[in-house]
Amino acid sequence: MKRYILDCREGTPNGPAPKLLSEQGIDRILHRTILGWSPNIGLYGAGGPGFWGFKLAETDQYPEEWLILTVWNAGDCLLIDGEKGEVVAAEFIAMHPDAGVEAFYRHYVARVNEITEKVVGSKIVDAQITPASSEILFQKGGETHRLEIPQGSSEPYQGRSWPSGENQREAWVLSERNELWA
Question: Highest taxon of the source (predicted)?
């Protein structure tokens, strides 16, 4: 039974399924420039599931498209350069009880800006996605940045650990739009 990976359709509940990256091949994303990204892709009728997506530039072989991690609140289970992708409000306030909601929003915006600076304009130089782990390397300006989904929770990582029954190869999809219905 899937706990975090959500089955999706493009645009509407009855739309076509996005393409699984595992079926298209990892070469499809390699050496492509990242034009943009979002931690808020997807909808299910009462809000959004919090998929993360990266807009890939068009190439001679492939159209402009989105590489999307179709995992419920994806930022909670991945790391960017060793730091949790996203800290949700309740978690932030628990860690900083005197900081308040405004401090959480400042933190959130700063984290989005930090990730944007790292990934927008970068190229994907390597990617390894297995049933138990994911690692994507982005290179920009001589620096390499790493997106990874750890196999389990460890210090200082406080995100959710990946459930052993779910296959990460089924979590990554390609879509020409960033509108996925979960």
Answer: Bacteria
Distance CA 111, CA 139 (A): 19
- What gap in Å lies between CA 182 and CA 179, rounded to an integer? 10
User: Residue 142: what residue type?
Assistant: G
Length of the chain: 182
- Distance, in Å, from the CA atom of 166 to the CA atom of 145, rounded to the nearest integer, reads 25
Instruction: Assign 152 to helix, strand or coil.
Output: coil
Is-contact 28 21, C-beta < 8 A?
yes
Q: What is the pTM of this model?
A: 0.90
pLDDT digits (tens, 9 = 90+) for 50-102: 899 999 999 999 999 999 999 888 888 889 999 888 887 778 888 888 888 88
Tokens of 173: 């999809």
2 in the Ramachandran plot: left (φ > 0), alpha (ψ -120 to 50) or beta? beta
Instruction: Give CA–CA dist 105/81, Å, rounded.
Output: 21
- Element of type H or E holding 68: strand 65-69
